[in-house]
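Cross-posted from the bioinformatics board.
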Amino acid sequence: MSRWRYFGLRLLLTIPILFLAMTLVFMITRMGPLDPVTAILGPEASGGASEDIRQRLGLDLPLWRQYIDFMVGLLTFDLGQAWVAAQRGTPVTALIAERAPRTIWLGLWAIMLPIFIGVPLGFYAGLRSNTFGDWIASFLGIVWQAMPNFWLGIMLLAVLRQTRPGNQFDFLPDWYELGPTTESLLGTPDLSFIAIDWFLLVPIPTMFDFFGFLTALKQITPAALVLGSALMVSEMRIGRTAVLEQVNANYVETAKAKGLKGRTIVWKHIFRNASIPLVPVLMSEISILIGGSVIIEVVFGINGIGQLFYQAVLQGDLPVAGSLAFVFAVITLFFNVLQDLLYTLIDPRVGFEQ
Amino acid sequence: MSNSNDLTEGDNTNRRGFLGLLGGGVAVSLAGCSGGGDDNGDDGSGDDDGNMSGDDGNTSDNDGDDDSDGEVAEGGQLNLINAPVSTFDPIASTDTASATVLGQAYENLVHYPNGESELENQLVENIDISEDNLTYTFTLKEGVPYHDNEVKDELTAHDFEYAWRRLAEAEASERANFMFGTGFMIEYETDEENGIGAANVAPDSLGIEVVDDYTFEMTLQEVEPATMDVLAYDSFAAMPEGLVDDIQGYEDAPYSQNEIAREVTVGTGPFTLDNFESGSEAIVTAFDDYHGEGPYLDSVHWEILSDDEAIFTYGMERNADAIAIPTGQYDQGLVNVEEQDDRGRDVGTYGPVENGDTLNYIAVPTLSTFYVAFNASRVPRPVRQAVAYVTNHEELINEVFKGRGAEAWSFTPPAMWPGGADAYNDFVDQYPYGRNETNLDQAQQVLEDAGYTQDDPFEMTLTTYDSSAFQQFARLTRDKLSGTGVEFDIDEAPFNTLIQRGENGELDMYSLGWIWSWIDPAYGLFGFEPENTNTDEIPENANGYYLDWQSQLGESEWADQAQEAWERAQDNPGPDSQDIRDEAWLEIEEARQEDMVLLPLYHELGESFRYDWANIPKIGGLGGHRLQHNRSWLDEDAPNREP
């Protein structure tokens, strides 16, 4: 099978997967323990009042009917209105559109960490395996990976908020005055530094404020640091192993034998081959980023999609929780497809049979 | 009902308990309410005997902050923290976070100033109650201006009729049932065809009659002594007639319910909504023509945060003027109580905190009781008693809550104990399970007598909601009882799930809490009437606690006593029968304790932590969400005065 047919088949396969994911989401939200009526009324809901609300939310309809409405709604991107979370009655699409850019901003900077620090560090360690530098990097990496995200977030908050003069960590630079002055470690970054017009689906920036950009970057940095750190370490470790494998490969011997310069061997041969296992890891980590953003946004008070999801699930807001789970599924699938595409481009050997 | 351990202005995640009496209710001291001139609205509320402080109930004027030296600095923005807000429409308001904000913009006939326990007039000037206690005539204050809007400039009686019609008829109303049953029974007509909601209320049929611009009458179907207390609930707030287009006859109104829910507030309050970004912040700005005192501030800003660490960080950064200290960061040793004021509040300082500042500290026992309860048909009495024997309240509060709570020896909080403080102390003295001690021997004895031994134990599950505190209680109790005749399983369920399982009668033993919205023992004890605890009937036809105590009627003298006492109280609703009802309440408490269907654990402590520059009235036991900021002000040197 040609690799493009392989790719097309993978693309087709996403349709049943998406369908299955949506069904699962429906089953989990509707048949699970979430009860939006109790969430709205509190525990002192009287029978009559809860019946009224049940009716208004459409929860009194038979389950198959709710299922069809749910699926049709998702497919036509008519995601309904929020029941409980945030603002009752707000269209879900509006909620998502308002908050998505902040989560994207967070994810964008979080992914920088594994790409620009994790991978290079791993390659470095791999090329200098079993040296002191390698040991240090590997040791610190394992320790770093052992620290859970939420804990790291809390620690970072505790340290940074005490960097003002006269506080416990004032030997560190005062975070609040470092670069653009900020009032709080918490809060949603102001993304109005850039204005975008859409021209036939092509975004065209019409305004850019560099200072505003720096402020928004500083505001997101602690959260991005925490969110990206776990990925950074796993990229580093996989990068190290991959390079190590290539360094000892026969073709490297051959290259050396034919007199290629060390630099050429490393850049043209080792790195390209070593990056093959990194691609799927990086792509699958997108879903880890999405999951992680739920906790990180809550800890850092960022009003993004993750926090919205958190609130929605806590309160049994089925339209919001369901729609977000659907959006997360679409994003994850998209990156899976992208991964296949990149795979096909990088590695000519990819196909269904071997 | 709440899983928060600190009830402060910054931590408003509680659902408000609100449930009136089923049926008749209990009339208290309605006599002498008629007559003009008296601007104290608490006459009909029957809460006088609940106040143990001996205070005369006058909370007016400068009962604000001790720090005020008489000179108020005007202007500036007060910065606070709030939990996620769900709506600004009074008729849709069910949570304290929403109430905190919308209470700045909307006002009622009467209110509990600063969450203290005595009702005061807000928009009403005089209340006349008929001989039969069924017709209330309200005379409104004249010349009360509304926030700038295109419909109306001043408050009139028509506005209450309109606002209450919305509460009864609008689709968005979450509290219509307060008018037709669980609150009080206002007169209305039903309409099978066009009726609205569960009550089938016919449009424009409420028993409200506007007499003139400043007078209206309300007619109830049954005597309800807590009527004025119910009317203090924020869903009964005034709103200009014809503002929203969601009830019949007002289709041309300028606003939709969605807009009223999240963009616009038009009330008579000291502030009006300026900016709201859901999940980020809410800002209200001063209404200069406010009819009452103040407001001194230019605006109030709430940062919306839900994570404990985030809340603490925001406070330590001095970004909020009044902050919350999560229990994880709380240190009992930093509390320095200087005095106890005449309302039983501890006033003092807390600190120095992490950033070096020392905060002003106020602690007030809230009208709440957190408990574990048993399903009497699933768990036999000796086992229930054994749990009570091994429970050490003091140990629990110190170890689990770092001292942030008061030991609960009764379900009804001491502040509203029938008969007052002495009667309460007598009741506590007779606590049969050993106060603040672990009586393992007696627990073992009572289990052995019933035939439960280590080899043949009774097995049961304690289900708590998502609360590390109750989980800790569960583990403590399990460890204490291990090796005796009780085999203890621990389960944790989300709040909503717990409620559902309770309603299905599937819980052996569970943890919950009850928060009073006003001072009346009946509004809490109704849940113990054995007939009302039948989980087959909950939630449709009964609304008691999930005890299935009715299964013990005829078998347990205590269940019979509770049933009989409740009925006696119901049969004696008259103003002269207070003694009879007080005795009945006591008998219910006694029956609960002897049969041990419910073990009260602690009354939550409402704590406030304010920076020195923030001058905010002290909150009362009904909670900070009742606090209006018209009298709050900031020192000139407050760091965040300018937004």
